[in-house]
Amino acid sequence: MEYPKAEIGVFGGSGFYELLDNPREFKVNTPFGAPSSPVMHGEIGGRSVAFLPRHGKDHSLPPHMINFRANLWAMKELGVSRIIGPNACGSLQPEIEPGHFVICDQFVDRTWGRKDTFFDGPITTHVSSADPYCETMRGIAYDKAVELGIDAHPKGTVVVIQGPRFSTRSESKWFASQGWEVINMTQYPECYLARELEICYCNISLITDHDAGLEGIEPVSNEEVVRVFTENNDKVKNLLYAMIPALPAERECECASALEGASF
Length: 264
What we know:
CATH superfamily: Nucleoside phosphorylase domain
CATH architecture: 3-Layer(aba) Sandwich
CATH topology: Rossmann fold
Largest sheet: 11 strands, mixed
Order of helices and strands: EEEEHEEEHEEHEHEHH
Helix content: 25-40%
Number of strands: 11
């Protein structure tokens, strides 16, 4: 089947299942199985966009059951060269409050058992993840957030836990003691798989809670995550609608050549 071409992809997170006006819907086949849902195709600011809710349209997929490889491959199949990945996240630091956005520049992987590479052999390929997020996209995301009056942090490290359970108080305090800012369940391997496909990737973390590490604050609950994300959905969409038209047509970042010299 011939699919429509899209330049920019967006993965929707918890509570974020719609983005495009009057989209066309396509089921995309991949060598890794079915993506989380059909891909919605449309336009934002004159740019062709593919949208895919990573948990499925009805949030039927918990974090550890998402077929990340199929989701990324589906975007590649449509010609996507840049992906924006907004998601609901917890804060590990008191100055990063619910409702704030963090444009992450680093991740720490604490997951296990996830299919996290396209290179299972016979050619051994090692792709650098020293700087896993696209610097060009991160700069634009932060600048547009400031223009829109959104409380945004220009960088931060997200620690990715397996899920679906939330952290214990001790785990949360440990993560915070390392100086990490954000906690999430889906950033890995999503952002790294994009790098393996030489796709630029930008994370936008919408802070919904303070996890379980701050004294005097109730531990995170699923109800609270959904409530805060829903309240801030319009801010996420407004940022995407401002950011997408501002992305340059040509890519001059390292993401576009990530596979050079990576194979033996």
